[in-house]
Amino acid sequence: MSNGVTENTAEHRFELPLEDGEIAAAYYRVDENGNLVLNHTEVPSEFSGKGIGTKLATGAFDLIRASGRKAVLTCSFMQHFYAENRDYSDIVVG
Prior knowledge:
Layout (H helix, E strand, L loop, with lengths): L5 E3 L4 E5 L5 E8 L5 E7 L9 H16 L3 E3 L2 H9 L10
Parallel strand pairs: 4-5
Antiparallel strand pairs: 1-2, 2-3, 3-4
């Protein structure tokens, strides 16, 4: 149920492929407790307003949940997404 979102561990990001080879990405770092600190989200401007960020966040949260990990949200977009999707409270810490 990742909606086409995959995790690129080498680049420390979740990726959603878009048209023309573009990607939307949610970047993270791993903290001292093994949590994924989601710190930046990028959606190419030509895809703005099309729900791409929400699809990316949903897929990333689903992958984090499926892997048994937890997320810390420092990215304002991810914080906003979580505020409207509290059903992910089992994976969000901090």
